[in-house]
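Feature request, filed as a ticket because there's no other form

It would be nice if the structure record came with a short human-readable summary line next to the tokens. Right now we just get the raw output. Example of a typical job, pasted below so the devs can see what we mean:
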Amino acid sequence: VLDFETTGLSPSRGDRITEVGAMRVKGGRIVDRYHSLAHCGVRISPFIAAYTGISQAMVDAAPPVRRVIGELLEFIGDTAIVAHNASIDQRFLDSECKLVNRRRANSPFSCSMRVSRRVYPQFRSHALGALAHQLSISYGGAAHRAEADAEVTANVVIKIGQDLRSRHRGLSPDSHLLRKIMDMPVAMAGE
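Raw output as currently delivered:
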């Protein structure tokens, strides 16, 4: 499970990562984690600093993005990746890999937001904070910080797996099943 904090929303406009949080989930529990701030060489706007709590001084003192991406890719290996609103995290990971001349394994991305819309169609919101609240999952850290958001996303994915197992006996949720659920039309979710 992966989450980035960034200087903005668009790597194509020069936005960069400032923090990464990643959790390895196995057997329905978090078994390993990776976290680092990243010196990205881009100024942190006052809005982003207020939103994330990540200051320019924190980023300036952090390891360079090249090292952080290398460590992250080593942590991920060739395992499947889950992120909440995954298209954003995937764009940033691919952009950062390109900028530091690294290739990532062809690990598929699954989106926990899209999966949750299909597993919990009755929920009014599938934003991470709202979803966590509706599933009684609490934050162990500050929202909009990569490690805390990755941990909450991991716990959402674990809860989705538990709920799928209790609804469908004998079902063994894994990354392949998450992708199938994510790709099905929302209208089929209740079937």
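Something like this underneath would help us a lot:
The two ends are 27 Å apart (CA to CA).
Strands lie at 2-6, 17-26, 29-37, 81-83, 109-111.
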